Amino acid sequence: MLNLRKLNFLNMKKLILSAAILAGVMGANAQTPVGTVVNNFTLTDINGNSHSLFDYLDQGKMVVIDVSATWCGPCWSYHGTGALNNFYNAHGPNSTANDAMVFFIEGDPSTTSADLNGTGGNTQGDWVTGENMPIIDLTTAASFENTGLDIAYFPVMYVICPNRTVLQSGVAGQIGTLTALNSYVGDCPAPASQPVDVAALSYKGELIHCEGSYTPKVQIQNNGTAALTSATVTVTQGGNTVSTGTYTGSLATYGVATVNCTPIANFTGGALTVSVTATGDVTTTNNNLNPTISLATNAASQIVYVDITTDRYASETSWKIKNASGTVVASGGGTWTDMSANGTTVRPTVTATLNPSACYTFEILDTYGDGICCAYGNGVYTVKDASGATLATGGEFTDIEISSFKTGVASIDELNTIALNVFPNPATDAVNVVFEANSSDYSVSLTDLTGRVVASELLNNANGTQTLTFATSNFAKGSYIVSIKSNGTVTTANVVIK
Hints:
This protein has 498 residues and is mainly beta. The protein folds into four domains: 4-184, Glutaredoxin; 198-293, Immunoglobulin-like, CATH 2.60.40; 296-416, Sandwich (Immunoglobulin-like), CATH 2.60.40; 418-498, Immunoglobulin-like, CATH 2.60.40.1930. The protein has nine helices and 32 strands. The strands form eight sheets. The protein has a five-stranded mixed β-sheet with strand order 5-4-3-6-7. A five-stranded mixed β-sheet has the order 18-27-24-20-21, with no helix packed on it. Strands 19, 22, 23, 25 and 26 form a five-stranded antiparallel β-sheet that branches. It starts with 12 loop residues before the first helix and ends with a strand.
């Protein structure tokens, strides 16, 4: 196995990801998202002390967890700031505040105690000397990930509230500064203190609706000290009740349940008000949610085109198109090769022929959780129908971005798209646009991702093969869109200028 850990400990986030995947340390998912309800763990630190996550949460403490690897350069850089240990000293069990707990977890089971102490072959230095918070050396990743907290990369950090929900998740160096950690104190809901306290924890219904009937779904939590046996969910729109749901059972303190409410017929989207109530509930500040449901974009055709321009770390990116039942009907990525420096790669256009008048979702995923733009290259994705209309586009997201659309009934022949070729791609000094004209007027333009036209040309009564050249040497590096318009038809292609 290629030991990427020993390549000079480069301070590159994706080196960390690649090495961990090769070592079998982490899964393919990004970090566990904010709002997730976690399970318990019981782990033993390097001094032989056992620690139960829920024991600390039940004391009303916020818990901060840093998962790093001894060979990881960015982990060592964050460790060197002292933020985690300083926060522990100010808020841990031996402090006057005593309102938080901190764990440092070495998350690569293949490393050794020697590595932790700075004398092994896969270490950046001594991780133990001078540290006061508990240090846990995992022997299996599952012993931690059974909580529902993923070790998606190193260093990943989680901040957990007493109600078992994730308050913060992300790269330790970004969310784990001392200023940031101090700012989280007091952000958690108050620990359970009343016999009855039901909370509307999160909205679980689809945030983009395609057509027809719509079912609201609400995750509730028992924040009371007694078991919750019943609760009522009411969904209103414009002051009118449009859906209701009920929970019955026995929900323990901090237990959660998802309530599927009655369907809303012929739902057309918009803002909803969700409230959950229970007999004897004296705390109403946590009873409401206000989701807004958008309608899916209507496509003109049943044929869609997927264009992806990846950033430097293309191996992290993949995409899927799913039908209404959740079946994947088209996909790509997941095996693309990373670049050796920051930049972009334009991937071949994928054409997907879907069923007419049907609902679909487009999902793009980034395993590291930082999208495909912009720190490591101006990546972008675009999904278009055969008329050139954009159904989904973006580049700046975290681990996943989802868009919905409904296909039309027109075929590609009926839409009379324009045969287009753009080269070279990526371009440096000039980009050539070649298309087939049919005795008509054509408007050809080159726009940046903000929609600003940077070059254009108008051809009157053009016929046959047309070749246009746009000089690009003075353009900013990044992704651009070539558009050709004629008689209401728009055909586009992505091009990257280096």
